[in-house]
Design brief:
The structure is a homodimer. Helix content of chain A is 39%, strand content 21%. Chain A is an alpha+beta fold. In chain A, a hairpin with a 3-residue loop joins strand 1 and strand 2. The first copy, chain A, is globular. Chains A and B meet through helix 12, strand 20 and helix 20 of A and helix 12, strand 20 and helix 20 of B. Strand 20 of chain A pairs antiparallel with strand 20 of chain B, so a sheet runs across the interface.
Chain lengths: 560, 560
Amino acid sequence: MSFTLGVDYGTNSVRALVVDCATGEELGVSVFNYPSGHQGVLLDKNNHHLARQHPGDHLVGLEKSVRAALADAAKKNGFSPDKVIGIGVDTTGSSPIPVDAKNVPLGCHPEWAKNLNAQCWLWKDHTSHNEAAEITRLAAKHRPQYIAKCGNTYSSEWFWSKIWHCLKTDPAAFDAAYSWVELADFIPSVLSGINDPKKVVRGVCCAGHKALYCDEWNGLPDKEFLSLLDPKLAALRDRLYDKAHDATVAAGSLCPEWAKKLGLPVGIPIAIGEMDVHYGAIGSGIKEGVLVKAMGTSTCDCAVVQAGKKVADIPGICGIVKGAILPGFYGIEAGQSAVGDIFKWFIEVVCLGDGKLYVQLEQEAKSQRPGQNGLLALDWNNGNRTILVDPMLSGLLVGQTLYSTRAEIYRALIEATAYGARAIIERIKEYGVPIDVVVCCGGIAEKSAMTMQIYADITGCAMRVSGSSQACALGSAVSAAVLAGKAKGGYDSFPEAQAKMTSLKDIVYEPKPENQKVYDDLYALYRLLHDSFGGVKNNADLSGVMKELIRIKEVQSKAL
Amino acid sequence: MSFTLGVDYGTNSVRALVVDCATGEELGVSVFNYPSGHQGVLLDKNNHHLARQHPGDHLVGLEKSVRAALADAAKKNGFSPDKVIGIGVDTTGSSPIPVDAKNVPLGCHPEWAKNLNAQCWLWKDHTSHNEAAEITRLAAKHRPQYIAKCGNTYSSEWFWSKIWHCLKTDPAAFDAAYSWVELADFIPSVLSGINDPKKVVRGVCCAGHKALYCDEWNGLPDKEFLSLLDPKLAALRDRLYDKAHDATVAAGSLCPEWAKKLGLPVGIPIAIGEMDVHYGAIGSGIKEGVLVKAMGTSTCDCAVVQAGKKVADIPGICGIVKGAILPGFYGIEAGQSAVGDIFKWFIEVVCLGDGKLYVQLEQEAKSQRPGQNGLLALDWNNGNRTILVDPMLSGLLVGQTLYSTRAEIYRALIEATAYGARAIIERIKEYGVPIDVVVCCGGIAEKSAMTMQIYADITGCAMRVSGSSQACALGSAVSAAVLAGKAKGGYDSFPEAQAKMTSLKDIVYEPKPENQKVYDDLYALYRLLHDSFGGVKNNADLSGVMKELIRIKEVQSKAL
């Protein structure tokens, strides 16, 4: 028997998973909640764009979660730590960390511990929206090819925007950093005992999607372009990396120090780091024709297309990067900046509710027919990632009367995220990428049958659910099994490993034609608001929106 | 010593007030909550437009509230019921009641008791929006003068829309009714023992503002026009009234039956019924140059202009009616369909809070600077009465992030109602009606200093507060004192009576220039949404709204 470990760094916690390579059975699991900030996120009450994480939380969490997962697995017959043949790591991204010349995060130095700019700049940090807009402008003028593959818009959530913002607003922190490492590359480098940022093995997943890396133009953006931003960024390029890799390349092998900390064999291979959703796509059985939606605080959509084929640049998506998900395939990423986070905001911040309230409101909301709430929302409380790529957009709710209930608003927010999902699917298909099946992973997909049915009815796609409730960690474990290879008890290819180690749940949510019809009308209203407030159309007639919501509401109320 | 009684019928309760004619001192008061429906309002869960009241509640409430107010006054030195020289009544409106040939409400007959259409059609009932639109269309074509004085739009809240809707949707109820009487006319007719609807003395306040009554065209709309709606409405005209009166005419005198029920002298005069806000305006000292805002569940704005002057028709306001408020003056009415009701919805329905939460959220919200919440709302949860006159509009909230708090949303809703108030003031002034001072009455004006300051900052007007917390009932009592006359211990004119019986609180809320500047920017955004969703402008560019809210928020957050 052989086992691999998948370690998944989320927004609020890190999770470790022990997987049986032969069957995909999940033998042990443990979750560690980051102790710092608000549920692990460092905030600034005067700047709601800011979201950081303490790198010390990541290191403590690595040891604690892996140790506990191994202890959990040890209760099962046949498992022992010496049968672990590899470790895979996935994280949120772009979540770059400023590090010193020894690959130690700035935030782990006592003198920088309190400085928010010295911490890990979490994916959802939007402080650098001005820098993102300026990079978009400069690239459009001087290097259009750089942004053609990421929807023609560089995001404030990404690598260069964040680093440039640090340089502009806190030059002391920027100067104190020798280099910057994505969390997805940093954790494998720690496990491998790499103490020089130049030697950290970088994954093409973060590099290609977030840092404008592409083999076509010899890696990262050239120094001439970076000088247009700031000469210091051009100088930084020399302290970053020349080459980024897909999952065929190892990030390293387990160093003695961390082997001891974790109680695992020295020298086992460490898979290349990928972003959570990319490994989650692998853990959900991604292949050509399958769209994987990872539904959590935010949502990411992944698709793949064989590398030989021609793929058009798709406006508004987050990127098309060769090898970002599966080696030998283009990885296509899109997403919504907030999904679960919007529900959480409504339940916890507005309603001051807890877990029970989710259950109660879902119970009430599921008896409502489409359109019966009379409400329409935009899913932009954290900006719009795809297809508008604009972090400066915000939420909107329209149609409320004096009688609109919590459950009606809750359902409207769920519907809003489904309309956002439909906009993404339509955009990807429009550019010729096949989507035959949608597989969802993440807590929402498992917990809320109502949400899945609403997604099916609104997108018109049958929705399936990943067999694992920890698809990201499972995908990391799959990558580790492929890296270890058949000879060590793993696999020689991803399709073989996925066939044995991943699965789908039996349930299929099929679109209901009578609901689709109503939601098509509501989606037209959603697009009207989307295009008006999003700046796609500047002369829309909105005078019918409220009346049309009332008309649909009345029809659907009488339909009961 | 002499005293008058004011009886004020609100949406959820009726209030009786005993007033000293010499000083305006309020000696006794009592509130009776209507027992039927939800807080006194009969609702239909399948039709949120519907709002009715049980006439039995009005009659029980009359006896109970007056009896209790007299008992309360009896504790004071000098008072005895035989010194009461008159009664004034104000009510919500348009709130027409179907009555039989003996002036008994249909809803008081056992066989009609459960039929919602046989009850009092409460002011905020919007079921007849189609009929209102059709009356507007027909009047514009055949009798433009009819609607020129009510903003060129007939409302679903008004007399003919409601009666026509009853005829169309429940002909049996329509046929069972001999006539229809406004609640403001009905209560005085009950007190006067009038048992023939044709003999009920009708006030010009409801007649002129709600039923298209005008001396210029010989009273109610002519039968030819009503036949265009339905021949049965033309026939009904003969069973309504020929003449409506201002407050110089008595509605009647107290009949022996009700004198006994209430313990008051037989034969004392009963003042003409006016709508609550109109008598509230009198109780708040209305005169030319003063705008009185009655702030409650909804808001009504009243102004007066001397009858000799030329007053232009003002688009979008509720009406210009000679004698509707003060005899000898044009009364101008405007209003917002929901104000306190919006706060109540948010606090009680969304937040599931109670009285304490109002206090808590105001405490939190008052420390926020203008624009700091980053939010903007439209105050249309119950439609828009002035200046768009469209019940089919609904609420909107924009700018919410994942961190927007209850207190921020609460403040945004208050601000929304203040923007709506500004739109009304600007419209009235634009047509040459002077507004030098704004006097507010009602619970909100007294309880929430924050709301008053926001109104001052947003409207740019100094806000004053009525000296009485029961301005409507006080105004009714003033009217009764004038009707009784100086010889009986009252007054011979309204100015004299107002000077002695009404007052203002000392506090003045002055606009703060630094707040006005920010709110001017936000009001421009409000008007953009107002005009787009309200159909005033059909080609607005909304792409900057969310970004401008963020810009203002960031400026105001740093200003701290």
